Predict the structure of SigF-like NTF2-like domain-containing protein.
Amino acid sequence: MENPEKEVADVVNLVTAAVNPEIQKLSVLRYYAPDAGFSHPLCRVVPGPGSRKLILGILQWYRVMSPVIKIDVRNVTYNADKYELFVECVQVFHIRYSPFRGHPSRLIVHLYLKPSIDDPRLLQIAEHEDFYHPADVVALVVPPLIPIVYLFLWLGTITSIIGARFFQTVFGFWTVSNGEGGHGVKLIDPETDCRAQKKAPTDS
């Protein structure tokens, strides 16, 4: 890539949603370094000699499972000093012969780039990481289970709140008080402070 910020959306579509396997393979060979690494919630490729072939195999398996993948790049952030890209995407992945309709899932793609060994003016992907919310991982495979994931996440929230209150009350862990640490810090409730300001008389 000569201009990663502008080109990465096309690259993402070529390696994941290409119209045929030949274009996909050519794109992986062009845009990934030969020793690139890959990390995903369900699989991983350690960077090393020949690792690009393993990444190609994973991307080909995606298309075997889902003949049609739709992916929309929503946002791109590029740090040119660190050769680092963050790409926000929404994709629809429908497993072949699955009776369930494909469900949009959001992911953040994190890419580290490095100069190509063939042409230092071009940048290739050295490390590829995919980050999904738990519900979005389930959306890829069995969309009807998404409400169950949300239920477990809600239970995690309740457990966290109860745990915090219990250990604060019983053991005094991480309790909040005015003047914490003896520094005289005055803690103000924003809502209370806002109401007080509205009631305060104004100079005429």
Observations:
- Residues 146-171 form the longest helix (26 residues).
- The helical segments are 4-17, 21-31, 51-65, 134-141, 146-171, 190-199.
- The chain has a mean pLDDT of 89.
